Amino acid sequence: MNADKKENILGYEFQTNGEDEGADMTGMRYIWAWVMRKRLVFLMVLFFCSAVSGWAWWRPAQRFEVSELALGELRLVTWNVGYFAPVKNKNAKDLDVERIAEVLQPLQAQVVVLQELNSVQQAEEIARKLGSNWCAKTVETGHDQILAVLSRLSGAEVETRTAGGRSMIGVGFQGEDDRDVFILGVHSPHPARGMDDTVDNIKAAVAWMTERKEQIRIMAGDLNYNFDPDLAVERDVLYREVMSVLSDGTISIGETYYAHTRIDHVFHHPQGMKVMEKSSGMVDLEPRFAMVPGWRDHRPVVTTYDVGDF
Q1: Over the Cα atoms of the chain, what is R_g?
Q2: Is the CB of residue 106 less than 8 Å from the CB of residue 66?
Q3: How far are the Cα atoms of 50, 56, 179 from residue 46, in angstroms, in the given order?
Q4: Do residues 65 and 277 touch, judged by C-beta distance below 8 A?
Q5: What is the pLDDT at residue 52?
Q6: Of 83, 219, 295, 307, which is least surrounded by CB within 10 A?
Q7: Residue 31, Cβ density class (10 Å: 0-12 exposed, 13-18 middle, ≥19 buried)
Q8: What's the pTM value of the predicted model, to 2 decimals?
Q9: Which one, of 139, 283, 165, lies nearest residue 224 by Cα?
Q10: Per residue in 103-113, pLDDT tens?
């Protein structure tokens, strides 16, 4: 019966009476060849999965090296703390809060813009862990996600607006040199929901930046739009519009997202404000799994400005 079963699986008629040893040996060679073929398929699948995982994990961006802030410098971090996962709620989990704060603390930023938090309480808890002088300002962007601007700068004039189906948050601060600072936190709609909404949200954010009168204005977040510096100036009308009134604070860092793309951005005004390139970059994260079957697809992006003279 076993021979019949094997015959059906392998397409080979086994000799069970011992009369044809050569046929038995041929059968064994056939079985071995079949095993080897299957092993090759397994190895090919394993190689493919490893290659895809490596592609997903590696980003060619410049890495951030922790450095002390010099007098007259302003450092901002933007980070989408959600997950890439086949579940509805991809937001940060409560058990992530402590680790998020641990990643942010050594970066010595004055401003942090976080996307895809799950609650206002998470933002407030992260701010508390960063220090008693930190505050958190938040808005519910849509789709049950929280966008937060955290800072240790003084003052906190807050305004929110909605465009493309997503809310943004603008916060006015007083800089450490007593100049006014405006931080605009943005999390634009994913293109899967409609590219028109993504573009409308970005255009509204840029228009808001031009309306403000603060001496220092910075717009940061996950814009869900790949501005390719090698092509966009000639071919991308939206990028030309943005760059006509703002400057790109992360262009020197390089690609911080999958497949050599950039969707986490920092733009600034005045356009002549200097980016400290050696004190800017992307922060690597270790693989971490929490309450969802997925991984973090974004990394913290750090931009340091010299605001002492521009």
Answers
A1: 26
A2: yes
A3: 6, 15, 56
A4: no
A5: 72
A6: 295
A7: middle
A8: 0.83
A9: 165
A10: 999 999 999 99
